[in-house]
What does this fold into?
Amino acid sequence: MTTHPPVGIVSAGAALPDQSVDTAELQERIGGVGLPPGMLAAVTGIESRRVARDDEYASTLAIRAARQALDAAGRTMADVDLLLYASATRDVAEPATAHIVQAALGGSAHALDLSNACNSFLNGIDAARAFVLAGRAARVLVVTGETPTRAMRPTVRDAAELRRAFAGYTFGDAGAAVLVEPVDRGGILDVDTVTRSAHWTVGGINSGGSRYPRGDEHTYFSGDGHELRRVFEDLGPSVLDRVRERTGHGWDDYAHVLVHQVTRPYLDRFVELTGVPKEKLVVTVDRLGNVASATLGVQLARVFAGLRGGDRVLFVGLGGGISVMTMVWEKA
It folds into this structure.
């Protein structure tokens, strides 16, 4: 029986735009429906979010995060065999945004895009591990750049339009990156996914594909947040039960539990349903909003330096489509 060396994350980076927009200011901008002052912040638990400038793109944030991850590992792009741009946001329809990122970083690795809504970055780490185990790459740089605030509807005309556009007002912009390679011990110990594709219509951005090649009304994020939450609540606890059964790990075995964060009430409900201790969480949603697939990467970058060898982290990803994903990683 062939055994493979463990593969793990050896460094992490994150990037945030300098521009911050308070939720109160955002509520004033959208106008049109007579919301009481402070209502949007109260309902979402989001006080502010970072918003990319007009001259900042998804690739801009990915490049900044990538440089941090490379520097932290003492590596350059010459050491990278594969660059995976794993994001729900792209700069252009073609070519792959991975090439835009790599051109700025100065590499010549194989480069490609991978996309699965807010699970894109976690899927990218899993794919990186698979490439290494298959012998197709020795070191993989996984990056994401997310600018979903550009899919916010700028104004709403009535309550019905607000309901359809509401989930978009939770968004913020960010980038993240990790370097994945063989390690002496630990590494990625467990991965699991559950997908219910019948729910693909619950929320999304329809423009840009072959169904809706132009913008118009399909330019903006639209969806049923209540239905999306219901599906996640149905699936999430059972997925975590499976992780516990396979690994034998309880909450005390994790230094941190990194969870995709849409709103503060979503996160509070996750704690209620799963029993995860609040002190294990890394809360970002209140100041950054929902930064799509960059969420877990930003959280990881915040705690990475404080992790010791043998510390374990549980990642819990939630993505439109819909999919739920978990990953258990142990720092070497």
Notes: The mean pLDDT is 92. The first strand starts at residue 7 and ends at 15. The two ends are 24 Å apart (CA to CA). The domain at 187-330 is CATH 3.40.47.10 (Peroxisomal Thiolase; Chain A, domain 1).
